[in-house]
Fold:
Amino acid sequence: MSKVAIVFWSATGNTETMANCIAEGAGAAATIVPCAEMTPAKLNEFDVVAFGCPAMGAEQLEESEFEPMFSDLEGSLNGKKIALFGSYGWGDGQWMRDWAERAKDDGAQLFNEEGLICNETPDDDVQAACRKLGADLAAW
Structure:
């Protein structure tokens, strides 16, 4: 079983709900790590990392906490198994496509080659998809 970190930022609670469901699915393998505490050294403690951030502004990552943390980790993502998730309220998910491309450019092994996205509040289907993602990450 892989050791899974779940690192996220949430403003409205939607991405936090997704993170908690991923943790449920991963079970004992999961550790939720606040984005302010994730460093390149801490990244090495985990086999798989699920990063979660909602779309902000013009479909971009949150700029004050999440983006600086993710930028700091980019040099350490080569070969790392990661998954991306988050919620959005407008647009069509372009922020996730851009983020997935960025992670691949960093050399990360991206689960399913794309992220798990949710428009607004995660409904039962999205929550189930998050639990499945957690279980899949723990087995990856």
Q: What stands out?
A: The mean pLDDT is 96. The beta strands are 4-8, 30-34, 48-52, 81-88, 109-110, 116-119. Residues 29 and 133 are 13 Å apart (CA to CA).
